TrEMBL record:
Pfam family, one: TP_methylase
Listed GO biological process terms: cobalamin biosynthetic process; methylation
Keyword Lipid biosynthesis: no
Name of protein: Precorrin-4/cobalt-precorrin-4 C11-methyltransferase
EC number: 2.1.1.133, 2.1.1.271
CDD domains: Precorrin-4_C11-MT
Domain of life: Bacteria
PROSITE patterns to which the protein is assigned, alphabetical: SUMT_1, SUMT_2
GO molecular function: precorrin-4 C11-methyltransferase activity
InterPro entries the record matches: 4pyrrol_Mease, 4pyrrol_Methylase_sf, 4pyrrole_Mease_sub1, 4pyrrole_Mease_sub2, Cbl_synth_CobM/CibF, Siro_Cobalamin_biosynth, Uropor_MeTrfase_CS
Keyword Acetylation: no
Pathway(s) the chain acts in: Cofactor biosynthesis; adenosylcobalamin biosynthesis
Length: 256
């Protein structure tokens, strides 16, 4: 008895994995977060499959309905936006399912952080500039542990990827400033990455809050911040060791 928890990807229905799509096409029941998963994906289900949108349901309701279908011998898919491991609220579902003797198999997906980087044509880890990306959120109604406050994390001066923070950009701006980020540090906001109404807003720490307001972005946005997001970075000469012709590694001897 098992449930498949599948990452649907960021929006574009072609960005689900082949494995995820196969399971979706074979499923008897599909529970999906209709607030963010593209309907077009759900249309890939077989005609007789039962489709259950879950945005209006609470945890116990969702799990009870899933358990019922699994006990009837049905193949059940739980479709989550992006990758299920990031702010997916999967743990609480898994733990209730396990209490009912039901296992899960998780199929990863393309997280919106990588979709946002792709559409912004950004490399988040630039040699000699930053080799670290922190995935986090600004503190809103959901508390963030003291040691993970944005101001503390930002002191690393690496690339930051902020989920669930579109309405909190005043806080983001002051946390980054308090961590010593200059006002001209680049920030890219991607609204609904890979959806037809996607918007890419190139901003800075100093103008972030104003730019969010001007563009009317209050949800479904990924905020990428740091010098790796500088739009003129490709014109500078950042080079990795991997493709340096003088660098020897397991697959190539470097030239003298
Ligand atoms: C509940 S979290 C789920 C994240 C998801 N598991 C992932 O890996 O992308 C929802 C947040 O993810 C981000 N998000 C999800 N899809 C997005 C998209 N297509 N474009 C931009 N941000 C997105 C936004 O920050 C949104 O507030």
């Amino acid at each position: 008895m098992k449930v498949y928890i599948i990452g649907a990807g960021p929006g574009d229905p072609d960005l689900i994995t082949v494995k995820g799509l196969k399971l979706l096409e074979e499923a008897d029941a599909i529970f999906y977060t209709d607030s963010l998963v593209n309907d077009q994906l759900v249309h890939r289900a077989k005609p007789e499959a039962e489709i259950v949108p879950t945005a209006g349901m609470h945890l116990e309701e969702i799990v009870t309905e899933i358990v019922e279908r699994v006990r009837e011998g049905k193949t059940v898919v739980r479709l989550h936006t992006g990758d299920p491991s990031i702010y997916g609220a999967t743990l609480e579902q898994i733990s209730l399912l396990k209490k009912q003797g039901i296992n899960v198999e998780i199929v990863p997906g393309v997280s919106s952080v990588f979709a946002a980087a792709a559409v912004a044509q950004a490399e988040l880890t630039v040699p000699d500039l930053t080799q670290t990306v922190i995935l986090t959120r600004a503190e809103g109604r959901t508390p963030v542990p003291e040691r993970e406050k944005l101001e503390e994390l930002a002191k690393h001066h690496c690339t930051l990827a902020l989920f669930l923070s579109a309405t909190l950009t005043k806080k983001v701006k002051s946390a980054l400033q308090a961590a010593g980020w200059s006002d001209d540090t680049p920030v890219v906001v991607v609204y609904k990455a890979t959806w037809p109404d996607q918007k890419i807003v190139r901003s800075t720490v100093g103008t972030l809050d104003e730019d969010m307001r001007t563009n009317g972005i209050r949800k479904h946005a990924l905020i990428l911040a740091g010098w790796a997001l500088d739009s003129s970075i490709a014109e500078r000469n950042y080079r990795s060791k991997l493709y340096d012709k003088t660098f020897t590694h397991g697959y190539r001897r470097g030239e003298k």
